[in-house]
Design a protein that fits this description.
alpha+beta; two-stranded parallel ribbon; 2 helices; 19% helix; elongated
Length: 159
């Protein structure tokens, strides 16, 4: 194993060995059998008996160290954020924030502003808006131009 253990979970190395791809038995043979893992239950199943040359069975030994299990690859704990007030509870050195799926654009912008002030990293900030994409208010024409246009219209209607 490529673990380094420490009482501090941040000090644990997140580099672990590559886990095997667990596939359902016979999924490579039949199209109707999907590759999503199912535990083999057959009396003579080669996968269940862990025969050489057959795919591995899911076992507890493949799990990661308890100190780093469930952490973001950066080594920080992920916290789901629904509103800007949720960021007050976070420590920027120990937590990273992920904005919840149901949060709208306005609240997302408020959360991003609050996170920037507090120094909290957001994992899914969303696409950056371009400055050119912003809609500018229409520019009003000078009064003289409006008067000349109005005169031209009245002349057309009078003819």
């Amino acid at each position: 194993m490529a673990y380094t253990f420490s009482k501090n979970r941040r000090a644990c190395s997140l580099k672990t060995y590559a886990r095997p791809k667990f596939v359902r038995e016979e999924s490579w043979r039949y199209k109707r059998v999907k590759p999503a893992w199912r535990s083999p239950r057959g009396k003579t199943s080669r996968v269940r008996r862990s025969k050489e040359g057959w795919p591995p069975v899911v076992k507890i030994g493949y799990s990661r160290a308890a100190a780093i299990r469930g952490l973001h690859p950066s080594g920080l704990k992920e916290v789901l954020v629904y509103r800007p007030l949720d960021l007050q509870k976070l420590d920027p050195k120990a937590n990273v924030a992920r904005i919840a799926h149901g949060v709208g654009e306005n609240k997302r912008l408020l959360i991003l502003d609050e996170a920037a002030q507090r120094g909290v990293r957001i994992l899914n900030p969303g696409p950056k808006k371009e400055e050119s994409a912003k809609v500018e208010p229409p520019v009003e024409k000078p009064a003289e131009a409006n008067e000349t246009a109005a005169k031209a219209e009245t002349e057309k209607t009078n003819k």
